[in-house]
Amino acid sequence: MEYGKTLRPGLVQIRVLDLEKTLDFYTNILGLDIVGQTSDGRVMLKAYDEFDHHSVTLRKADEAGLDYVAFKVDSRDTLELMARQTLGFGYRVHEIPANTEQPGFGKRYSFKISTGHVFQIYSDVELAEKGPQIINPDIWSEQPRGMKAQRMDHLLLYGPNIAEAETFCKWVLGMFVPEVCNNPDGSRLASWITSANKPHDIAFVEFPEPGKIHHVGFYLNDWHDIGNAADLIAINRLELDIGPTRHAITRGQSIYFWEPSGNRVEVYAGGYTAYPDNPQRVWDASEIGRGLFYYSAELIPSFFENVT
Amino acid sequence: MEYGKTLRPGLVQIRVLDLEKTLDFYTNILGLDIVGQTSDGRVMLKAYDEFDHHSVTLRKADEAGLDYVAFKVDSRDTLELMARQTLGFGYRVHEIPANTEQPGFGKRYSFKISTGHVFQIYSDVELAEKGPQIINPDIWSEQPRGMKAQRMDHLLLYGPNIAEAETFCKWVLGMFVPEVCNNPDGSRLASWITSANKPHDIAFVEFPEPGKIHHVGFYLNDWHDIGNAADLIAINRLELDIGPTRHAITRGQSIYFWEPSGNRVEVYAGGYTAYPDNPQRVWDASEIGRGLFYYSAELIPSFFENVT
Amino acid sequence: MEYGKTLRPGLVQIRVLDLEKTLDFYTNILGLDIVGQTSDGRVMLKAYDEFDHHSVTLRKADEAGLDYVAFKVDSRDTLELMARQTLGFGYRVHEIPANTEQPGFGKRYSFKISTGHVFQIYSDVELAEKGPQIINPDIWSEQPRGMKAQRMDHLLLYGPNIAEAETFCKWVLGMFVPEVCNNPDGSRLASWITSANKPHDIAFVEFPEPGKIHHVGFYLNDWHDIGNAADLIAINRLELDIGPTRHAITRGQSIYFWEPSGNRVEVYAGGYTAYPDNPQRVWDASEIGRGLFYYSAELIPSFFENVT
Amino acid sequence: MEYGKTLRPGLVQIRVLDLEKTLDFYTNILGLDIVGQTSDGRVMLKAYDEFDHHSVTLRKADEAGLDYVAFKVDSRDTLELMARQTLGFGYRVHEIPANTEQPGFGKRYSFKISTGHVFQIYSDVELAEKGPQIINPDIWSEQPRGMKAQRMDHLLLYGPNIAEAETFCKWVLGMFVPEVCNNPDGSRLASWITSANKPHDIAFVEFPEPGKIHHVGFYLNDWHDIGNAADLIAINRLELDIGPTRHAITRGQSIYFWEPSGNRVEVYAGGYTAYPDNPQRVWDASEIGRGLFYYSAELIPSFFENVT
What we know:
The structure is a homotetramer.
Chain A: E1 6-16, H1 19-29, E2 33-37, E3 43-46, E4 56-60, E5 65-73, H2 76-89, E6 94-96, E7 108-112, E8 118-122, E9 151-159, H3 162-171, E10 176-182, E11 188-194, E12 202-206, E13 212-219, H4 223-235, E14 239-246, E15 252-258, E16 264-270, E17 281-284, H5 288-292
Parallel strand pairs in A: 1-4, 5-8, 9-12, 10-17, 13-16
Antiparallel strand pairs in A: 1-5, 2-3, 3-4, 6-7, 7-8, 9-13, 10-11, 11-12, 14-15, 15-16
């Protein structure tokens, strides 16, 4: 099997408690644009620098959390092949016809992985009306707002048997694993996994409860914009989890905080350029405090708590 | 009395436990240059962007802390006038002849203020050999090292009766007070005081024990260099106190951490441009957590502890 | 005479050709706020981080350029003293009663200096309704717009006999001169002059025609915001003069460009902290290309042209 | 054929006139590390954040310029397949045995493409002794020097028939083309080509003379480090070509300047995240001035001159 077939995580559906207040956060503070609303009242959003129809769907629910993440793959052939390989891997695969539930999206395949998370794959999606320019393009059409999120970037998921999830991402999704953290007995504590040059598209932490999410990460331009995001957290009286700080793992500069519905959000910048031929970085569990929070060099208690 | 007579805090003498290891921090990590050593073994240092002979003296001692801070004033006349006014204010004034204890420095007057700290004033000091260029000057002569501290910037002192100390700084030193924090009964909890456009040259927090210091602050160029300083704290395994963060008070971007002898150091950037005609900013004690640590919006316990 | 009496340049009145289009630049691109309109149709503006009533007045006229600059001084006593000293210096002084022509401003004195520019001084001005917060203040009330100009910062004026203008600024306005450029015969080619810690509040270049202005400079936070300003110049199809670049003189990071009426504007960040006791920096005229445009190290032709 | 097989440009051999002086630039100013010297006196260098043995070889010669660029591919199978496909494409392919001329490198295949440039491909290279850490890694082992180049990033090549070169990069090297510039007659004027998420690994400009190079680009962290690089250009009296500026094409922030042997170097930061499924950006030749130099929006004459 080969790396490079999966392009990126292209869509997350997030559960929110107070749709109006939370939407205000995603649009006016984080800086996403509203693409539209589905017939059942969910709201579709995208970052200003994304080409595809939408990347975030908010669904009003009684509990915060992640419904699913969908990965875009590079062709219909790849999509069909991966669906078969997923079946072969032992997961039940459910087909979602085009334009069902997620306007603009082609056919998706949906399945639950070992960690209890619902993954989806798709190859086709309409371009957004308000994507980046392509003819003699300016760097943006409208000055980015608020935290100036450029794209939905990655997710950190918590659940059991992440070793299997990692294997699935490599064998079926064709991703590679730039960085891992191992327990003293050699088992995986955490894994950072990517499709191409970003240091991670998805990460897993071993956790007894299935299907939990630590955060969705949105990409900002640089450390300066991390500072700007921190200012906005303060001014808008959002609750900080940790940061501004840096991860030694991925090298990304980061803030974790809570949006109004209680989903943890990361704004993230920097990070190394990952290549599949580079040696894998390996962390000992005893060093993960430093690995995650390089400046304080301690694991904050909330890192293994408050996952939704 | 008039503002503008005091130029800036020009010299601090700091007690260190392990001179060699601590000196390695001040030179190779913080980025100061060694100016020389006194006959009794103290080490004189300066930042690359300071003109005067030296700004920091390290003295080996059994306890960390501050021996004294000396303020440069704008003329010999001012120096003599201030010495008389200090006497008139009720403090005992001690004259230190030129080139005594601090090579390169002219006559100093020394006195203890209400908070138990030793203040000094002087008007004359030799220029450093290795100061900024003045003829067709480049922006620096040698690429700044480590955290790239530009200057010794300010101090935060803890002690009793800061209201009197604030009055002394205004009436005798001719400084003004851009920002204060008051207790519910209207008494001062903290005060930020400056000679000119920097938001503070010195600050006080009311504290039962006299003569304590919270930190000496060194000025960095901007938020980017704050991030670089945080990287150096991590890589050199220095102990972080808090940050990178921002103060709403002064608006400065900041990290507090501990140098090897246990003195808390701040690296600081930004901050508003202060003017004596601008309204004074006033904080309620109940809001000081947000005022000091704008992002977490909570007072960390160490803020009233671990003062040396 | 003493430095420190003048606080800063607090008001400029600028002539614009197309008021509507130019106002769009000053508000939506540069980021100033409209304070109001005078009865004769001029528009008053201020930057988000200025406390006083307004700092920029735009007047529709047939030619771009500067009507006058007004300096705020620290007290009514100083104002009266300076008016008398200005007379004594040999300039005719004209009194402008409070609230005449510039709403919110107290009494001003107006006079023409050797370079042909109209200077004014005043000590009283009302606070703006929309100034920075002062009770438990956030760092701003409304996220800064566009280029995020923090304040009207300085001016560069062209005219004859700048040596006399420099002397006037020192002797009467109590300013000092951190940096100069001299011709081979020792005469002044240019002079940078300040009231306190900013490297310049005003600068002069010797020029045969009187009363010309090279640019008004607005202060941005840092080099990052200089880059953001350059992006906005590009996207809004404004005409660039030079930059992003750095001045070795003042060390400021800078862009010069043209607003829609043909006034050159500078956005400026950084710059050293000036002190009156520091040695004066001195440039040879032969090095002024490098001094002004440190990166290309050449004087661009427009530097001595296109002054309005 | 499939994208993703080529990893990146991994090695350039550059001709220099004055080896000692030029080496001082590459090590002390640009910030590369010396890996060693070949038996015939060439010097091998690498950036601090590169894992492989070396990425730049300097060869003393009578003329500046590029000897060749070598691309790393993802496996030996790919290497052999690409060699056959290159032959099939019509180019003569020359095998260079392992450890010949470039210590540490496995077998390379060498061939000349339509533009007159020598390309090489290889799949194996030893890891550098001084690469990034991999066990509980710090973000770097030694504080980056000078301009802090992180990696050799890309090249801009000039020569005839770039349309064929672009096709070769797509069909044989498996790259894709995020951005192009077309002449009014629809023919290619320029092409930006990449292996994965970087906006370009290599670019071509149509030019009558074969085998010319415009620049080698080195990656810096962000716009702040572009400013730092500009400071170092000024202080070290290097000759600037253009910048600091931004390309609308790739969105990268950039400076072009000349190293002591007359090779143009770019320091580059930012740039969008490229994906093969995103629409191709297309520029009209009439807009290329703005596309290349977004801030001045004019093509500088040297862009089509001084290629070596």
